[in-house]
Amino acid sequence: KLASLALQPAITPELVQGRVHLKCSYSPPPPEPPVQFRVLWSCLSSPGKREQIQQETTLEPFSYMEMDGANLRLGDTVFCTVTAFRRGSPEQQSLPEDSKGFYAGIKFLPESLEIAEDGKEHVLTVLSTVPIACPGQDDSCKITLQLSTEDLGKSSQVPGPPDIVLSACQVDLLPGPCSGGSCAAARVTVTAVTDFAQDGSRVSRLSARPAAPGHVLWRAYTPRDVKVTVRDLPTGNCYSFTDPHIITFDGWRYDSHKIGTFLLSRSESRAFEVHVRQWDCGGHRSATACNCGVAAR
User: Fold this and answer.
1) Are 149 and 205 in contact (CB under 8 A)?
2) Domain ends where: 103, 118, 146?
3) Is 46 found in the same domain as 18?
4) Would you call 4 helix, strand, or coil by DSSP?
5) In the chain, how many domains are there?
6) Measured between alpha carbons, how far is 221 from 70 in angstroms, rounded to an integer?
7) 172 and 222 share a domain?
8) Segment 254-278, tens digit of pLDDT
9) 187 falls in which pLDDT band (50, 70, 90)?
10) In what helix (H) or strand (E) does residue 265 lie, and over which residues does it extend?
């Protein structure tokens, strides 16, 4: 066996003549004596199990593999394994070294979200880890992703309307230089729906689908979904009922027997207020007022 050579193979995406390739690069040992490399490409076929795609013997400190949509598809997690050996002495070889797994496709960052019904916007980045190839001279060079949401509810409940809203129904991934694991990226904000219902924490699913992809690589490709857990927040209630008994947001109880129109509630943070109208419903027997009308803005 040759000594461990610390080849440190790593996979990076690259456009070669307008087609998407993955490049496996490794650090070559000193030139003496001459060394060849055996590069084995594989991908995850199931969790923990790899399937061999291609093998190559080369003198170069790199190897290319095309993402052709058949042998190598979007959604695959790809590895390259490199072994060095002396020319003419294939039995004298180094220990095989694996690259880290490279996920080729669309990613959401973060991959899951936990948010609350507090009206805050949460930024979700959607990115492509591979370059966006232009299918032809006249075609617009972008991938449009159609975004949708679905309420998965809780195991004991029937799914209802989505518990989240998005800032956009679709985003465009425009080509750019690949850096930091991203070759094209867009942002969308996710907000929990404040539904005034005490329905516990619910799970929604955010899905992205390439819309009318021009490039064969993107057809029939379904990116991974994002799971969004929405934490229920208790909602304040205030009441005015019958001959008005009033219960405030913080639980104080009192009666109001005045005749007229009154401000029942006003928000200090947004344009929202409720007026209540009370009339004399006790007649001569007692000074009692009852609710007879309400107006809300």
Assistant:
1) yes
2) 103
3) yes
4) coil
5) 3
6) 12
7) yes
8) 998 899 999 999 999 889 999 999 9
9) very high
10) strand 260-266
